[in-house]
Amino acid sequence: MASSRKHVVFDVVGTCVSYDTIFDALDTRLGDRLRAECIKPKLLGYTWFEAAEREYTYLSISGRYKRFYDVFSSLFYRMLWMAGIEEPRRFATDEDLNYILEQFMKLDARPGVAECFQILRDAGFTCWAFTAGDTKRVSGYFTRNGIDMPAENFLSCDSLGIGKPAPESYQPLLKQFGADESWFAAAHMWDVSAAKSTGFKGAYCTVWEKEPCTDLFGEMDVMADSFPDMARKIIHASETKNRSPVANPVTSFWTVPPCDLDDHRSTRDLPSVSDVVIIGAGFAGVAIAYHLLKDNPNPPSITMLEARKVCSGASGRNGGHVKPDTYFNVPKYTRLYGEKAAAELAAFEASHPYAVKALVESEGLDCDFHLTRAVDVFLDPEHARVTEEAYRKLVKDGVVDLKDVAFTPQKDAERVSGIKGAQCCFSFTAAHLWPLKMVQQLVQGLLEKGVNLQANTPVKSVSSTKNARGLWTVDTERGSIAARKVVYATNGYTAQVLPEYTDRIVPVRGICSRIVTPQGPNSPHLVNTYGIRFDSSNNDYLIPRADGSIIVGGARQRFWHMREQWFDNVRDDELVADAVSYFDGYMQRHFRGWEASGAKTDHVWTGIMGYSSDFLPHLGEVPKKPGQYIIAGFSGHGMPEILLSSKGVAAMVRDGISFEESGLPSIFKTSTERITNPKSPLEESLQPLWNINNKAKL
Fold first, then answer.
1. Cα 341 to Cα 616: distance, rounded to the nearest angstrom
2. For residue 212, is pLDDT > 90?
3. Strand partners, 201
4. The pLDDT value given to residue 398
5. Could you tell me which of 279, 619, 464 has the C-alpha nearest to residue 472?
6. Which of 216, 280, 442, 650 is placed for a possible disulfide with 285 were both Cys, Cβ 3.0 to 4.6 Å?
7. Which of 595, 656, 605, 668 is nearest to 631 (CA)?
8. In sequence order, which residues have a C-beta less than 8 Å from that of residue 442 and are 6 or more positions away?
9. DSSP-assigned beta bridge partners for residue 605
10. Are 183 and 201 in contact (CB under 8 A)?
11. Cis preceding linkage at 165, omega within 30
12. Does the structure show a pLDDT above 80 at 4?
C-alpha cells in the first residue's frame, strides 16, 4: 500500500476488538460454578488479561520474551487460585481452557471501528495495526469482522521480540514514518501514553477503561468516547496547524560559532517541581529569569525550557537592531488607541537603547554593542509626503516627545543618508549588537545563580487546571514538571502551547542576510543603522558591523504577496526561495559610493517572529489562568521592547503586583477582550497585498 503523509497506528486486542467473547466463554463454561464462589466471570476475565499483560511485560523487559497468547494460556489456573479457588485444576479442566482459547480466536470488533477506519482513510490517513498478539490470530480478527487491514500495515511485537509498552517497541514504525504525521490510537491508557512519550501523537478511546486516569498518564492529544468521534477529532487536530518549532533550522550568521550552552541541560532529568517554569530560552525568557533573580534575597527555583538549542529562535536569528519606533507608527496607534497611549508607547521604546546599554555595561557583556543613530529613508515620493505631513502634525500637537528625532527633507536626504533616490529621512537614537552573545552570557550568569536550563525539551502542553497541590503541570517530551507559576516566552510559537492565542499571535517567517566585501574592515564606512522604506508596505533594515560586514533583512517585495510563504509559517528549516537572490548587489544598488565595492552576499537565513493581530505584544497574566504569564507577540520588533517588558512581567511574577503597577504601556496588557476579538487589524492591513495578482517588482 502506498504510504501517505498521515498515519494512525491502532492497538488491536481490547481496542479494535473487545474482550466480550472471552467473558462470554468464561460464563458459558464456568459461570454457575464461579458465581457459586461469588466470582463474577467478567471480573475474572479482566484480571486474567491484566495479569497476563503484566507477566508478558516483565518477561519482555528481562530479556525472555514470550508470545502473549502463551502467557495468557499459562496463567489460567493461577488466576483461579488468585480468585479464591482452592483446587483450580479440579474446579476447571483443560477442556474448559481449550474452549475459552478457541473463543479467543473469534473476538468481535467494537462498535464503530470499521466506520472509524473509513473516516480516517477518506481524510487521507493510512491505518496500521500494532499488537502484542501473534500475527495470525490478530490479523484474523480483521478478516472475521470484514475490516480491511493490509498485511503490510500489520506489525506484531512477536517480530520484534520486544513487548509493549517498551519505548523500543514503538520506534520501528516511527522510524518508518519519518517526518510524516504519526498517531497512535488505543483504548488502553498505558499503551497510548507510552506511544506518545516516544513521539507519536496520542488518541485515546474510553470504550474499554472509561476512566482515563489523566493524573497518572497525562492528557492525550485526542480523547473520545467512541471510535467515530475519535476519528473526527484526529482529523480536526491534524487540520489544526502545528506551530511548534521545527527541527534543524538553517544556521544564522550569529549561530554559526558553536557555544557550550547550545544543548545545555543542568540536570539529567527534569526537576519534579519548580517555583517558576519559563517556556522559551530566548531574550524574553532569559530576561524574565534575570529580573526575577536580580537583587532578590529569596530567589525562587527557576526551570527554563527550550524546544531546541538555547536562543535558537528569533533572538538568535534577528538583525541585532535595537531600533525604537519614536515617530513612524505613532499616528496609527493614536488612531487605534488614543494620543496618550501612543505617546506612552513611543517613550517606552525610546528608552530601550539606553536600557540595553545599561544592561551590557553593568553585566560586562561582550556582545559587540554600539549606541548609534538609525536613519529611516523614504524612497517613494507619495509615502515620503504623507509621512512628513504626519510628522509635522505630531510636532505641532506636542503630545509625543520628538526631541531625539531629526527630519531631513528631499534636497539633502540623499547626501545625508547615503541612499540613492532618498525623498526624505529621519534619524534617532538606536543601537545594534550580537543578540545571541548577549543572551548566552546572561544565561551563563543565571546558571551560576542556580537556574535549571533544559535545552532540546519541547513543551507539549500545560494543564488547563491546577492539580490537588495547587500547581500547574507542564508536560514536555521528557516528562512533566509541577510549577507554581508558568511564564510563556514563546513569541511566534505561543498558540501551540496556549491555544487561546491562536490567530492572536501568528508565527511569521522572515529572511535576513550578511553581506561582505573583499576589503573587510576597510570597506566603505557606514556610521548609522538603516531602515529603507520603499513604500507603505515594503521596507528593509540594515546594520553595519565593525568587522566591515553588513546585516540586511526584509525582502518583502519578493514574497509577502504569497501568504503561505511567510504568514502562519514556522519553517525556519528552509529558506524563502524567491527571496534569496534579493540581497545580491544590494549595497551597489542602494548606496552611494558602493558601486565598485565588490560587496556580495555571504549568508542568508530565515527566522520566526510572532506577529500580534492588533500590532501589540501580549504581556501579563494569562486570562482565567492565575499564575500563568505571557510575554510574546512582538511583531518583529522585540529588541526595542523586550528588556523593559520583561522587567515589568517579572515584577508581576515575583512580587504579585498588578499590570497597572508594572510601569508597562497600558495597551500591552493581555486580556480576554484582546484574545477573543474576532477582528484582526493585522490581517486586514495585509489583505489588499494578498489580493494583488501581479507580483511586485523591484
1. 12
2. yes
3. 183
4. 93
5. 464
6. 280
7. 668
8. 286, 287, 290, 363, 365
9. 512
10. yes
11. yes
12. no
Distance CA 280, CA 310 (A): 9
User: Mind listing the pLDDT tens digit for each residue in 66-114?
Assistant: 999 999 999 999 999 999 999 999 999 999 999 999 999 999 999 999 9
Query: DSSP class of residue 213?
Result: -
**What is the residue-averaged pLDDT of the chain?**
93
What DSSP state is assigned to residue 464?
A: S
User: Count of residues for the chain?
Assistant: 698
Report pLDDT for 360: 98
On the 0-12 / 13-18 / 19+ scale of CB atoms within 10 A, 213 is exposed
Whether the pTM exceeds 0.85: the reply is no
Distance of alpha carbon 316 from alpha carbon 312, whole angstroms = 5
pLDDT average, residue stretch 125-141: 90
Q: Which three cell numbers stand for residue 474?
A: 507542564
Bridge partners of residue 541, in order along the sequence = 531, 553
What is the pLDDT averaged over residues 587-601? Answer: 95
> Model confidence at 634, in pLDDT bands (50, 70, 90)?
very high
**Please, are residues 178 and 169 in contact by the beta-carbon 8 Å criterion?**
no
CA dihedral angle for residue 648, residue 651, residue 656, residue 657, rounded to 10 degrees: -50
Per the structure block, which three cell numbers stand in for 200?
507519536
DSSP letters spanning 215-269: HHH---SEEESSHHHHHHHHHHHHHSPP-SPPSSPPPPTTTSS--TTTT-BSSSS
Would you say residue 694 has pLDDT above 60?
A: no
Sign of CA dihedral 454, 459, 462, 467: negative
Q: What angle do CA 85, 87, 92 make, to 5 degrees?
A: 85
Following DSSP, what letter does each residue of 380-445 receive, concatenated?
Answer: SHHHHHHHHHHHHHHHHH--S--TT-EEE-HHHHHHHH-BTT--EEEEEEEEE--HHHHHHHHHHH
Distance CA 211, CA 192 (A): 14
3-state secondary structure of 27: helix
Distance CA 547, CA 434 (A): 12
pLDDT at 3: 39
Determine the angle formed by the axes of helices 352-363 and 435-448, rounding to 10 degrees: 50
The pLDDT confidence band at residue 198, using thresholds 50, 70 and 90, is confident
Contacts of residue 695, Cβ cutoff 8 Å, sequence gap at least 6: 561
**Contact (Cβ atoms closer than 8 angstroms) between residue 44 and residue 79:** yes
Residue 50's contacts (CB-CB under 8 Å, 6 or more residues apart) are: none
Q: How far apart are CA 663 and CA 665, in angstroms?
A: 7
3-state secondary structure of 376: strand
Radius of gyration of the chain (CA): 31
CA distance 358 to 450: 24
Please write down the HEC assignment for all residues of 498-544: CHHHCCCEEEEEEEEEEEECCCHHHCCCCCCEEEEECCCCCEEEEEE
Place of cell 568587522: 547
Give the pLDDT confidence score for residue 1 in this predicted structure.
Answer: 33
Look at residue 608 and give its three-state secondary structure: strand
